[in-house]
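The following record pairs a protein chain with its ligand, iron/sulfur cluster.
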Amino acid sequence: MSDFYTPQLDPLHPTRHLAALDTPFGPRAVYDSVSFCNRCGSCQQACPTYLFTSQETFSPRGRNQLVRLITEGKLKLTGENRTLAEQALNTCLLCGRCTQACAGKIPTAEHMLELRRTLRSQPLPRLLFKLLSCRASHPHTFARLVRTGLWLRRIGLLRVARTCGLTHLPGLNWLNHADDILPAYPVRSDRDAWREALADHPTVPTLLYLPSLEAEFLMPSLALSVLHLARQKHRPFVLSNVSSGLFAYVYGDLRQSRRQLRRLILRHGAVQNGTLPLLTDSVDVYLFLRRAPQLFAPWPRWQKKARQFAKHVVFVTDFLPAKALSAGKSARVRLDSGALFAREGTPFDQARKILKTHFKKNFVECLYKDADVPAFGYNFVRGNLGEKICMSAVRSIARTQTGTVFTLSGLSALELSFYLKRFYPQAQADHLARLNG
Ligand code: SF4
Ligand code: SF4
């Protein structure tokens, strides 16, 4: 990066922001990065929110111009301007489709997060935000709260609250959505097997497994499938109920995210001098951790550590067998590429290759602009728009008569399963790690 002054989005609070974004063309300040947008519009048709609204403000080009005008001081964030900016940024799925379609690989999703940090905007309902933030600050309390919530749901308390209309109170609507998409209370055998896996500490581990929140608490069968795959070549140690920093990166504060990431880097470094691979089952976590160095640009010592750490992060596709083991390959399958920030590169290419090898002609190739489920709990933020986007994914699945849709994150599998059950029950969704059951 040049030493010349570049305008800042929020010059009074530099530590709330990334000093430089990691782009395929090297590190760039946010202003430089938005300035590279030449308004060509190649990204417009790839953006789900633009396709549904047909409004420039909800397109990648419009969003980039908004950030540029704010950074140049030509647009003051007051009154209507602020409302418009908040709408533009809170509707962005952070899906990275625009970056894939853009010749300059402009990271619009990262620009949106920077704007969110400037506005200090909190799109998640307050109670949900508090609950999820608790995972990093008080992991034991968090685990107890989630288990209690699932148990209360099992005994029907949520149904009663729904019938009484309590879930329509302001800030509680997300409970309906959570109740719709979350699986039933995990079965006893899975819970027991997972507890055993957590108690089994290998004396000399050869791999660290960082289960995602959904795999650990809602879908222990997914976490067990990942462990089963990892055990074929490794002795994995499970980092239970540990936050990667992604939640704070997207919904919270960058400083919290850095703190959590530092903790994870230190924890990784404490085992075998930080030489072990760190396995994750969520493509969102994978993409975030691989870009960990960009969070530490002003601190060279930490950036160096983060670079070392990022090299060791691996995704579960690395452990899937190249040869097909599953029977019953007559149904058509496809890959749901719903992810944060990116939709091309290693895990996506690997996943396509694996599915093509396993299912040959029955693998349905998707166009880059085919709809898929919004990632990382978007539906909790934007119920209506999220539902429209999910429905267009379901239509596209029905049009291609797909039988199984594989996702690269447990949460995407849960959301898609919910919509498929309601509108196209002939198809089902599952995480790719469960390819062989
Ligand atoms: S983000 Fe890229 S594709 Fe979209 S208008 Fe700007 S330069 Fe063109
Ligand atoms: S990240 Fe996704 S939703 Fe946001 S501007 Fe880009 S394509 Fe549109």
